[in-house]
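Title: Request for sanity check on D,D-heptose 1,7-bisphosphate phosphatase prediction

Description:
We are preparing a figure and want to confirm that the structure record we downloaded matches what your pipeline produces today. Could someone re-run it with the sequence below and paste the raw structure tokens into this thread? We only need the token string, no images.
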Amino acid sequence: MNKAIFLDRDGVINDNSSKPVNVPEDLIIYEGVGEALSMIQKQGYDLFIVTNQGGIELGHLTPEALDKIHRKLEDDLREYCTFKEISYCPDYYKNSKCRKPKPGMILNLAKKYDINLANSWMIGDMDTDIQAGIAAGCKTAKIGKINSEADINGKNLYEVIKKILS
């Protein structure tokens, strides 16, 4: 069985503090993200993104626009790492199995790629990310405001990855 890092996107990999990322030009990757992902991937972790994208249901962006954003993200990080898959939940209002804090995206990827969830991590900047990781059976790491339920807390992805590897 494989081990994985499940990453939320907005607020973890890229900055969305001034505006939502609805076009590729809005994608600004945080400093140190590439290096952090390279370090963890070299330790045998598969990388996945699991992101709530309720803006699709709300009509702010289309699945095609989101695909373009994710292609840019993969291109921008290609020299550092590769993602096994980017999974997103388009729902906002629906009572959805995929929208975090529900663990649907993580559980589907774990089944598809034979991931040992007990040896894997969910990293996010929202309490819903931590809740999804716990519900899926992962260890969890929270970026930003401290979450007492998370296994690790840190100020950014680089700091969290260093703690996971130590």
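Thanks, this matches our download. Strands lie at 3-7, 45-52, 85-89, 121-124, 139-143, 152-154.
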